[in-house]
Amino acid sequence: MKTTLRATALTGTLAISLMGMGCATEKPAQTPETSASKAEGTPGPAAAEKGLRLYVFECGDIEVSDDAIFHANLNTPGVKRHLIGSCYLIVHPKGTMAWDTGLPDELATKPEGIKAMKDLFTLRVKKTVASQYQAIGVAPDSVKFLGISHMHQDHRGNVGLFPHSTLLVQKEEYESVLGPDSLKFGNDPAAYPTLKANPVKKLEGDFDVFGDGSVVIKRALGHTPGHQALFLKLPKTGNILLSGDLVHFTDNWKARGVPAWNFDKERTIKTMQETDQFLQANHATLWIQHDYEQSATLRHAPGFYE
Ligand SMILES: [Zn+2]
């Protein structure tokens, strides 16, 4: 989803506190190797020495007063919709990768939430991302890669926690959020002041993050200029695709609904069709990151998937 909570709402405090929080989380980097000796048999990244792990975090709560805005082809005006924000940590024997970072942790200080998108959305943060990383013994500033599905605020809200991670984004997305025309794309670099200093690998297609086919970024354009999804081959769980905002909830997926604010409607529909074929060919399950009902069925951190 897109929110209009931008620099105007939180500029100063957001910039300062995000950087401050980055510092607050500084402590000796805890890698899978270093945590193994003391964390045997407990939740944490230790067992990733043996294989792949996926941690699921709750990274925002979103109430929508009219879900018709997500799919004009369905006649559902005035229907309320509850969405969740999701973000993830992948622990691979060769390193760690964050996938999306949720709404800004600062919203946790506003339990009543804030309004966005002409009051259509009420945004809340009930658990901070920082606290959920802390609970599994991983310092965000030790994470090797930072994959962002796209740069809407509910996905990049805590990028400041990951100042050392190599950003993995499609070239078009990077240009639209940090390039000279970012404001024309509705993006304000002042809202994510640390990001330009991150090392970056600009992608121009799919990317096999660890070189073994188990963690693959999939180019999935349409929602934004350089939107992407994440394919995971988990040995015990099976193959899954983390949706980014290719779709927002299950009915939306079935109806091939395209939100009014998508960057390219035709490309979105084409990507949905290609994704459907990909899911079938790879026997993969689509995990829709904003789907509240689906999220409620998942095991959240400190538990994990293997
Ligand atoms: Zn979103």
Automatic annotation (TrEMBL):
Keywords in alphabetical order: Hydrolase, Metal-binding, Signal, Zinc
Disordered: annotated segments: 26-45
Any Pfam family: Lactamase_B
InterPro entries reported in the protein's UniProt record: MBL_superfamily_lactonases, Metallo-B-lactamas, RibonucZ/Hydroxyglut_hydro
Gene3D superfamilies found in the cross-reference section: Ribonuclease Z/Hydroxyacylglutathione hydrolase-like
Keyword Cell inner membrane: no
Presence of keyword Zinc: yes
Domain of life according to the entry: Bacteria
Domain (Metallo-beta-lactamase) ranges: 84-283
Signal peptide range: 1-24
Protein family per UniProt: Belongs to the metallo-beta-lactamase superfamily.
Protein name: N-acyl homoserine lactonase family protein
Taxonomic placement: Bacteria, Pseudomonadati, Myxococcota, Myxococcia, Myxococcales
